[in-house]
Write a structure and sequence with these properties.
The chain is mainly alpha-helical and about 60 residues long. It has helices spanning about 5-10, 15-25, 40-45, and strands at about 30, 35.
């Protein structure tokens, strides 16, 4: 998916996405001038996010 598609899917900002890419917590590939995030990379990024517990504390 493109950066914009990932932004819509993850409900995060472009700035956050590029921060995650620069930190290496989100992986992307280049195809020509396009930056693409694979479904596996998107799901791995989501799985690595902190969990939100019922009590409101981060687990």
């Amino acid at each position: 998916m493109t950066i914009n598609e990932f932004r819509e899917w993850s409900r995060t900002s472009r700035t956050k996405i590029y921060d995650e890419l620069s930190r290496g917590t989100l992986c992307a590939i280049k195809v020509g001038r396009r930056t693409l995030i694979t479904a596996d990379a998107a799901n791995a990024w989501l799985a690595a996010q902190p969990r939100y517990a019922q009590s409101g504390a981060i687990a």
